[in-house]
Structures are given as structure tokens and as C-alpha cells.
């Protein structure tokens, strides 16, 4: 079967490239320390937005507090972007950073 004909030609090829790049260069969702948000709020947000367990969220909050920031989750841009927006909507400073392979 001709892959291009079945899937609509160049559009499908471009989507394949985008997916491959997303998998090849994963992103990190980084949460930054601030003087505004409480530990409890950050923990609750990591549980609700990122799907962390309570223990995992607590550990992330401690690392964020001591190191100034922490990559709380890694994955594709498509997966992490809505989570980043949700954290920002909650008043938590978060960024998406491309993870460069070593």
C-alpha cells in the first residue's frame, strides 16, 4: 500500500516528522521556586495537574525549594504544554525546556 496516497500525501509526512522530533527531543516541565506559593499548594497542584503521587509531589516541592527549580515531569511538548499552562493558571511559575540528549 502507498502510505502517501492513503494518508493524504505530504501532510502525513510532516506529522510523522513532528512526532519523531517530539520523541527524539523530549521536553521537561520545570517548576520554579517563589516566595508566594505554599508547599501545600504546589504539592496539591502537582498531584492534580501532573498526576504525581503525594510522596512524589512532596519530594518535588522540597527539591524545588532547595534548588530553585526542578524538572517535575518529562515528555513530549504536546503532553506537557497543557500541564504547564494549568500550573501557570494556578500562579505557579513553570516553563517547558527542551531536553538536549547528552
Protein described:
It contains five helices and three strands, in the order H-H-E-H-H-E-H-E. The protein has 102 residues and is α+β, with helices and mostly antiparallel strands. The chain has one domain (26-98): Ribosomal protein L7/L12, C-terminal domain/Adaptor protein ClpS (Ribosomal Protein L30, Chain: A, 2-Layer Sandwich), CATH 3.30.1390. A three-stranded antiparallel β-sheet has the order 2-1-3. It is globular and about 30 Å long. Mean pLDDT is 84; it is low at 1-12.
The biggest sheet amounts to:
3 strands, antiparallel
Overall mean pLDDT stands at 84
If strands are numbered along the chain, what order do they take across the biggest sheet?
A: 2-1-3
Write the H/E string, N to C: HHEHHEHE
> What is the name of the CATH superfamily?
Ribosomal protein L7/L12, C-terminal domain/Adaptor protein ClpS
What is the beta-strand fraction? 15-25%
Structural class: alpha+beta
Provide a concise account of the structure shown.
The protein is of the alpha+beta class and 102 residues long. Helix content is 58%, strand content 18%.
Task: Please write out the topology.
Layout lengths: L2 H5 L2 H15 L2 E6 L6 H12 L3 H14 L1 E7 L1 H13 L4 E5 L4
Antiparallel strand pairs: 1-2, 1-3
Descriptors for this entry?
102 residues; alpha+beta; Ribosomal Protein L30, Chain: A; three-stranded antiparallel beta sheet
Amino acid at each position: 500500500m502507498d502510505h502517501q496516497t492513503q494518508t493524504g500525501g505530504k501532510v502525513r509526512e510532516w506529522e510523522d516528522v513532528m512526532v519523531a522530533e517530539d520523541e527524539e527531543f523530549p521536553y521537561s516541565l520545570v517548576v520554579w521556586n517563589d516566595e508566594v506559593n505554599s508547599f501545600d499548594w504546589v504539592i496539591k497542584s502537582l498531584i492534580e495537574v501532573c498526576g504525581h503521587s503525594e510522596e512524589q509531589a512532596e519530594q518535588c516541592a522540597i527539591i524545588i525549594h532547595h534548588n530553585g527549580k526542578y524538572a517535575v515531569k518529562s515528555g513530549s511538548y504536546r503532553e506537557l504544554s497543557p500541564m504547564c499552562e494549568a500550573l501557570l493558571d494556578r500562579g505557579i511559575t513553570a516553563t517547558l525546556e527542551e531536553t538536549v540528549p547528552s
